[in-house]
Write a structure and sequence with these properties.
The protein is mainly beta. The chain contains no helices and eleven strands.
């Protein structure tokens, strides 16, 4: 079993940067593919970025590609989301998810992820 906890959210102005962290506890973190999702009020949860177990493969939603970077440090059981050039439409609760995919396939659907953190609020003012 894996427990996840996000941190790093906050209130920033448009154009600013934030770095989110997701710390995992439990065994075999390096065996899990990790994803970041976000959910804005009144909207469905949407995929933001994902990273394979090895860190060698990443994928991004078109809305964040070129602005956000996902990375992981398996030695520290942590996955990161560096968010640059933030926009008001990036405002949401950001959550990390873990799925036991051992291949380089990174699922985009939230239902594919087994473990979730509680989320961290990101608010971008205009």
């Amino acid at each position: 079993q894996v427990q996840l906890g996000e941190s790093g959210g906050g209130l920033v102005e448009a154009g600013a940067s934030l770095r989110l962290s997701c710390l995992a506890s439990g065994r075999s973190f390096s065996r899990y593919t990790m994803g970041w999702f976000r959910q804005a009020p009144g909207k469905e949860r949407e995929f933001v970025a994902g990273i394979s177990w090895s860190g060698g493969f990443t994928i991004y939603a078109s809305s964040v590609k070129g602005r956000f970077t996902i990375s992981r440090d398996n030695a520290k059981n942590t996955v990161f989301l560096q968010m640059n050039s933030l926009k008001p439409e990036d405002t949401a609760v950001y959550s990390c998810g873990a799925t036991p995919y051992s291949s380089n396939v990174i699922p985009l659907a939230a239902y594919e992820y087994v473990y979730w953190g509680q989320g961290t609020q990101v608010t971008v003012s205009s």
